[in-house]
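Suppose you are handed a protein chain with no further information: no name, no annotation, nothing but its sequence. What can you learn? This example shows the usual starting point.
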Amino acid sequence: MRSIKILDCTLRDGGYVNDWNFGMGSIKSIISRLDNAGIDIIEIGFLDSRRKYDENRSIVPDTDSLKPIFEDLGVVNAMTLSMIDFGTCGLEYVKDKKDTPIDGIRVIFKKKDYIAATDFCMELKKKGYKIFLQPVSVTTYSDDEMRELIKIVNKVGPHGIYIVDTYGLMHKKEMLHYFSIMDENLQKDIYIGYHAHNNFQLAYANCTELMEIDSERELIVDSTLYGMGKSAGNACTELLANYLNENYGKQYKMDQLLEAIDVDISKEYAKKYWGYSFMHFIAASNDCHPEYVNALINKKTLSVKSINEILSKIENDKKLTFNKELLENMYIQYQRREHRRQ
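A reasonable first move is to predict its three-dimensional structure. Written in structure tokens, the prediction is:
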């Protein structure tokens, strides 16, 4: 039977909600409860050398700054990771694995950077880390581009590569299509991971769909406690754990996950809402960056119909990278056309 693992990234993806300011006590509490629950992989947060060290945040400038998190913690069951957004943390800030408390590093990168990013991953691997490759917005890759990426990935030999649905655009058919390309072309010992967002309320459904697929490929599904995360939020760790317990004989301890939500996550939710929203649906339905929608809504001069008309005219290769100047020009042109029609 193939391996299916849960990777909880609350302290990393959830940090977009609160600027990673969970507080040291909650950071330790979340890690401890996830580990006690039997969650397979825990992502501790970001490595980002642009940030100053703050013990209360799960975004730190270097691997040395991770050590206080693990003091007196005693992680027993889980693999622990940090993430690097390629270009924000150089190799000089990453000590060899033997001198750090984490087991691996995930590297997220834009399509234009994939050659340099995979070279960077090779260097991290030489330092002893388990490496995971995270291509941003996998929906921007053509089939041929994805196969070219996989050729390089096979040379790197990472622990895993991900289907990253950065803006929650994927429905079942698209997700399974990318999975099949990876499954057919990747070396057999490389995990395929799936990272979803909930713009279409499909994160949980798509994760369970991948679990059911007829494949021997090892699988990792990303999730966060209570779905805490960027934009419309993520698949919920507690839901995926419960599903795997009921259908795959897993033994995740649900009380530990629910306590983490009750003690550490609910207070964050009370401060700032995350999850499915009108704005994120409009963004996903137009295959574009949510900030385009947010900027147009904040104009307070446009109907939803007008917003959709403007978004529909953004060129495909510009939709997923927010360009304020481009949008402002399109808004002015649209207003002029509407004025002439009156």
